[in-house]
Amino acid sequence: MEAVLALAIGTLTASGLWLLFRPRTFQVVLGLCLLSYAVNLFIVAAGRLRTDAPPIVGKGAVDPAQFVDPVPQALVLTAIVISFATTALLLVVILAARGLTGTDHVDGEEDDL
Amino acid sequence: MSDWMHHLVIAPIVLPMLVCAVLLAFDERRRMLKRLLSLGTAAALVVISAALVWEVDGGRQALPGTPHVYLLGDWPAPFGIVLVADRLSAVMVLLTSILGFTALFYAIARWDRSGPRFHVLFLLLLTGVNGAFLTGDIFNLFVFFEVLLAASYGLVLHGAGEGRTRAGLHYITINIATSLLFLIGVAMIYAVTGTLNMADLATRMATVPPDDLMLFEAGAAILGIAFLVKAGIWPLSFWLPRTYAVSAPPVAAIFAIMTKVGVYVVLRLSSLLFGAESDVAGFADDWLIWAGLATMAYGTLGILATRKLTGVAGHYVMVSSGTLIAAIGMGGEALTAALLFYLASSTLAVGALYLIIEPVERNADEDDMIEGIAEPVFDDEYTGAIEEEENEIGVVIPGTIAILGGGFIFCTLPLAGLPPLSGFIAKFAIIDALFADAPIAPSAWILIALIILSGLATLIAMTRAGIDLLWTPSEDSPPSLSVIEVAPIGLLLAACLALMILAGPVYLYMEGAAAALVDRSAYIDAVRDARRIGEVMP
Description:
CATH class of chain A: Mainly Alpha
Strand content of chain B: under 5%
Oligomer: heterodimer
Number of helices of chain A: 3
Helix content of chain B: over 70%
Largest interface: A-B, 34 and 31 residues
Helix content of chain A: 55-70%
Number of strands of chain B: 2
Strand content of chain A: under 5%
Order of helices and strands of chain A: HHH
CATH topology of chain A: Helix Hairpins
Radius of gyration of chain B: 23 Å
CATH architecture of chain A: Orthogonal Bundle
Number of strands of chain A: 0
Number of helices of chain B: 21
């Protein structure tokens, strides 16, 4: 489980970073999306991983070490909402920039080749 | 402590947020109402934050300088989110309120009409900035950062246009990426220590097993990079001058406090987590020092290289951040007090500069504006010099030019650090504190040299711009200048003057704030011992 999650986070981060450094605005948005997925998974991982167990705390004496820490999950929820909203705003700005500059290059002008 | 005084801590966050929500309900045509409400809120914030400063600095408590802790939702300290107002937070909130009120006042002249929902976004920005200064929880800090950033995205784009959209695109992208770094840092710190409360974090540092310490340091470093981006530290600062230059003047003025949010958090966290009593004392201090010095050098060159005043102001913001970060890296109680004084002085001065740039440049003809680097700074000064000399006595300086020129000179004084205004005391105090240590470190010498050089560069750039924009006779009729525009600039400069006249008490306050940063126990104890409502005092 750890290996799979680590691989997933690593792949998402690597692809996200690569896209972030691309010259087209749409690639940048996709890069930021992938990066935020990676970060969200990373936060979940910070609260310990546990498989094959019900997500409910039973009655009686409970050993908290047997359960996943719920705080990071609450943090992830906040982080998801925020990154979703800011990405939506960025998309609007990108559309405006495309309309005003006539190009989808991140600098608003094409490189002189 | 009476009940309403207790809620003073949360008022700077709740009040603008509430008014913000109310303003959304009215449509843009009810401009007067919106202006009155938002300006009233900004004025109320000045009063509230002044009361907060008074209360924290002594007020009616037995032990002056005890931080005020506010338990949100009445949850006990490490489990719920706390707001903490100590001397440092309170003075930062006061600074924000003063700058916010003056910028909003200025905006009423015409800038709030150049796009929808200016007042809502502006108040939201104040909410976020105040929240970031007052919170005692690192994840809550992230949330307030996002609030202030979301509002700032809207404000950068206020007035639209191609330049703003282009700069806004870069600004938003960089800040989203930075927020992700912030989250990674918070997650790593939480994974190691199991807490998000800053005071609790400081105490739990001691129990972190040595194996995990490296992970903690990595988390803190990633978090630090996120704040250094916001503070505009070289080489993470290329977004700053351009974004600030294209923003509407009142927006740029309030943005002057936003870089200081980054500086504040670095100061707060480095004193709590990496203070003298900590296991990893002095972590990353060298990095802060050299990054700060590099920023100052880059900013100084930038001030000399740019011909537009907005560019000068943007690079000056970088110089001031660099000075603060380098001074934070060097640490020490005397230096911290000096840097806090410098922070207050430079923030007010930059705010005034951003407000005065637009009326000054409005005066200049389009072709007078020096755009490219290749062009000469002045037109040939010697052409027609003799004829001009003859009627020199008869030249009448129009009133508006006189006011603008006077204001411009008074803006230059605190920026360059010349005697009659607060900038001089601030820089003098920093240099004095640096000389206090017996063997002066090479980095301290460099800092002293850069402080003086950056002041000189500012003076040169401002003089050049002043001669070109104000002194050069122009055939056009003098610009119209409304009282609404002059008053806030005057207010900010008056605040600089007040800092100068009241330097004694202000400096004592800053020394108290610095002492609390060096000896972090007061902060930690206040948070740990915070009582819930109804709980009996022991």
